Amino acid sequence: MKAVRAYVAGGAVLSVVLAACSGHVKPAPPKTAEAAAKAVVDGLLQNKPVVLWNALPASYQKDINEVVHTAVGKADPALWNAGWELFGKLVTLAKTKKDMVLKTPALADAKAPVKAAELGRNWDAVVGLLDTLAQSDLRNFEKAKTMDMGAFFDKTGAELMSKLQALSQLFPPDKMQDNPWVVLKTFKVAPVKAEGDTATVKVEFGGEPALEEQFVRIEGKWIPMKLAAFWNDAMSRTKKEIAEMPKADPKTNEQLLGVIKAANNALNTMIEAKTQEEFNMGLVQAMAPLGPLLIGRMGEKEQGAPTPAP
Description:
The chain has a four-stranded antiparallel beta sheet. The chain has 17 helices and four strands. The protein has helices spanning about 1-10, 10-20, 35-45, 50-55, 60-75, 75-95, 100, 105-110, 115-120, 125-135, 140-145, 150-170, 180-185, 225-245, 250-270, 275-285, 290-305, and strands at about 190-195, 200-205, 210-220, 220-225. A hairpin with a 2-residue loop joins β3 (about 210-220) and β4. The protein has two domains: about 1-95 and about 110-245, no CATH class; about 250-300. It starts with a helix and ends in a 6-residue tail after the last helix.
């Protein structure tokens, strides 16, 4: 509940994380701060995260697109595509071999930290979320590097949010009051004062004491003042950090591609398995390439470690 309240009350965290969940629908900006806050909550209740994008000034949207494009561009194209192909295959495995996965020795063991019954309870809902990502444009490097976040998340963001709402119905009855969609329904906002491009509104959530929050109008959009206060510095730091990211070592990329190729072959065996024994053998095959890689990484760390003083 506190996280939900934070968006409308402060707006900073959710606006950054979910601003990309967007689309190209561009209704006229709300004329008042309270109308802007209400529009966001109403949209979220309809599983339309596009409202968060629409609530942001155009320059903020540009910042988000630039950060995403630059970050993706730092990746190795072949490794990016191979990694997403592997992710997609894992999702296929989870969709088609649920029973065999849950009967693997690691999960069937009575001493396993995660019990198969617990894992299987929300299996289909979680796999559905992962499948939405696996089928998105993120799986293609060229598309991901240039995609418009608004167009991308108008579809994928809404699908994810709808599936998250379905998953939220699994909250225990005594915890349902913490369900974000339940909390959003309790939202109330009222104007306190407004002068020029600044305004104060009173916000209430979940029966907790009302808070007065300040909003500011930037490029015609009313946004929480807390968001405006940190945005430029946060974006500058983020862009600087991405620009300074070193390029991946070609040798490391080659090793990772080899691991991914071997894992893909093993996953094919598991997907095609007719018996639990065949499936378990495929799992062993999938884990085998990780051993040499991990040992190599440990060796690199030891070589780079300072020599102890005599």
